[in-house]
Every structure is written in structure tokens, then in C-alpha cells.
Amino acid sequence: MSHAATASAGRGSGDSPLRWWVLAMAAIAVSSSYYESDVIGSVADLLARQRGFSQSQIGMLNAIMNVPTVALALINGVLIDRYGAARIALWAAGIGVIGAALTAIGNPYELMVAGRFLFGMSEGAIFIALLAGLAQWFSRGGIALGASLYLSLARVGSYLENTSTAWAHSLFERGWQAPLWLGTGVTIVGLIAALVYYWMDRHPPVGAGARTAAPERVVWRDLLKFDMSYWYILGVHVLYASVFFPFRQTYAVEYFQHAKGLTRPEAGIANSWVFFAAIFATPLFGLLADRLGHRALMLVFGTLLLPLTFVVLGLTDLTLWVTTVMMGISWSLVPAVIWPATTLIVAPRRLGTALGLITLIQALGIAVSNLAAGWLADKAGAGAQNPAGYSVMLWFFFLLSLTALTSAVLLWRRETSPLGHGLEVSRSSAPAAA
């Protein structure tokens, strides 16, 4: 099948009302994955007190999930291109249930580790599979809204898990195992949603047309022959994530306590608002991208806020809420634009591979950035007794975010040239190519 025919098939049901049901099922499936991903943190103290786990053992339960992501990300993308997004999402959801159940059984410890490893295989595949699937159901002029709603609803899973200690308090009173079985139940709900999504993908509405081309033989030498727009946007993906996640998920709370004088609860609240606001703001930016276009320019603006955040943090005494708002806008805007923009740059027949490669390099970038930032902070003696020691870490994140901004500017320049893919055009229906 020709490139143009494949792209047309991928958008065949872009105007079908059924696409919103597809989005709902995808959101439930990925949200359940996000819930189970975070479940260890809520029972960490119970595992330490009731089972005598060390901090290293508890840390291993989350660290082991990243191993399959690095090892299998590109393979997952190839499988999506070969067998279809809906089928891979269903397989991944099934593996996730098995992994969650083994984690809940949890005895001996090695069985729990094996469960988390299996769940990592699921988590690494289901996100990109469902995103690739949505790109087949939503038209070019609506993919940013669809993808941003998907991302927003996915974070509901993390929010529900983080608040489960309150709304499922009785389960936590029973010990470490009951909350983990609750997580298993949530993954079963996700499996059911993935099954419904698979059924809808196999039974399109009358007149909607095919959504995907017939699977093609994988030509390995052609897998990485993407054009420069793809490599620029991959750079933004990797560099942005390598700044945002290490800082906000690993070091921000400690930094706010030691350098800004906040208590632990105050620091946690200030940090959490970045994620909470994204649940509501991400779809708004996605809708704006669909309506107005200028997607690459929006990425430049969103990425620019990142280095400015570290300038304000390190060189001014402005209230912490200034940088919380700046990073909150950035974190809401960039994901809302960058993932759907990627689907517009890459041909549908190679989208799974493209997303898999991004996921692979992104995971490596986050890991290296975490280690580098921690090493720099240790070398500078950063801590409660030496708040100034955090400055070198802030400079590291500032310089890395400037590199991300450079990639975004290069993408914008290319997309405003004749070699662009129409990212700056609103409601465009021109086929993407890569």
C-alpha cells in the first residue's frame, strides 16, 4: 500500500462519533496502568514495618519496572506497526494483570520483584500502543485534543492512587497486601477497557472505512530513516523529560525544604500542584493547538519556560508559587502538543517504531540525568546545612533545558519551511510524511 493510502486509511474514522468511546476506553486502560505503577509508594511504610523490607528492597520494586522499558521500547514499537495498536494494547493489559497479581501475592520477595518486572513490560507497551491507536481514530485536525485528553485522564490514575490512603483507608488498615489487591482489581478494569477497545477497532462503524492498513513486513534497514523534524522533536521529548522528571519527581521536595525553608507538607503541596493543574490544563492546550495550529511555536514557548524557571529559582527570592505556575504551564502545554505533533510528523505505518524509539531514549535520558544531578549535588555538599550546594544542580538543569529549547527552535524553523509537515497549520488535512 502506498504512503498516501496508508495515511488516508489511518484517518478513515477521524470523524466517527465512536472515536470518543475509543478515547474513553484508552483512557481507562492507561489510567489503570498509571495507578498500579504508583502503588508501591503508598504501601512502602507497611512493607518496611510488616515485612522488614529495607529501603533498597522497596526501591528495587520500582526500579525493576524500568528495565523492560529500556530493553523492549523499540521492539514494542515494531510490534505495534506489525500487529496493530489495539492488539498490542490488549496483550500488554493482560500481562499487566498478571504482574499486578504476582506483586499482590508478594511472598517470597523475589515473586514480588518478578511481578513488578512483568508489570514494567506492560506499562512500557500500553502507553505508546494506545497513543498510536488514537492517532488512527482521530483526524489530523483533532488529534491534539484527543491525545491531550488521553494524557490528562491518564494522570487521574496517579491522582487516585496517591489519594487511596484516604478513600481506601480501611484496606490499608488490613496490612500491605489488601491495597495491592486493590491495584490488581484496577488493572483488571483496564484489561476490560482494552478488550472493549480491541473489539471496537475490529468492528468499525458502517461507512467509517478502515482505520489501519494491512500489516506490512518490517524492513529493518528502513526503521530509523526518519527526516530531521522527527529527530528534532525526539530531542525535545528526551531533553525536556530529562529535566522535568528528575527535578520534580526526585529532587524538588528536598530542594524546597532545604533551600526555600518549606516544611515537608508545604513542599509536597507546592510540587503536587504542577501535576494536578495538568489534569485540567492539558486538554485546553490541545484544543488550542487544533484550533490555531502553530504547534512548533507552542513547543518553543512551553520549553522556554523551563530554563526561566531555574533562573527564577536560583537567582531570585520570588515566592515559590511563581515557578510552580511557570512549570505548571510548561508541563501542561508541552505534552499536549508534542505527542500529537509526533503523530503528524511520522507516517502511520511507522508510528509505533517512532514512539518506541522516543520511549527508549527518553528512559535512558531520565536515568542518566537523575544520576548526574545527584552526583553534582553530592559533590557540592548540598543539604539542609548547605543550601547553596544545590546551585550546581540547578545550573545543570538550566543548561539541559536550554538544549531542549534549541531543539524546539530548530523544529519550529524547519516546520515553517517548505520541508515542514503542516504543524503550524490549523485543522489541516494534508498527509504527514517521514
Walk me through the structure.
The protein is an all-alpha fold. The protein has 17 helices and no strands.
Arithmetic mean pLDDT: 81
- Our count of domains comes out at 2
Report the order of strands and helices. HHHHHHHHHHHHHHHHH
The CATH superfamily of the largest domain is known as MFS general substrate transporter like domains
Which CATH C-level class of the largest domain is it?
Mainly Alpha
Low-confidence stretches: 1-14, 206-215, 428-434
**Helix share of residues?**
over 70%
Distance N to C terminus: 16 Å
Please sum up the structure shown:
This protein has 17 helices and no strands. With 434 residues, it is mainly alpha-helical.
Write the SSE topology.
Blueprint: H1 3-10, H2 18-37, H3 39-51, H4 55-63, H5 66-83, H6 85-105, H7 109-137, H8 143-162, H9 164-167, H10 169-173, H11 177-202, H12 228-260, H13 264-292, H14 295-315, H15 320-345, H16 351-379, H17 391-415
Helix pairs in contact: 2-7, 2-8, 2-11, 3-4, 5-6, 5-7, 5-16, 6-7, 6-11, 7-16, 8-13, 8-15, 12-13, 12-15, 12-16, 12-17, 13-15, 14-15, 14-17, 16-17
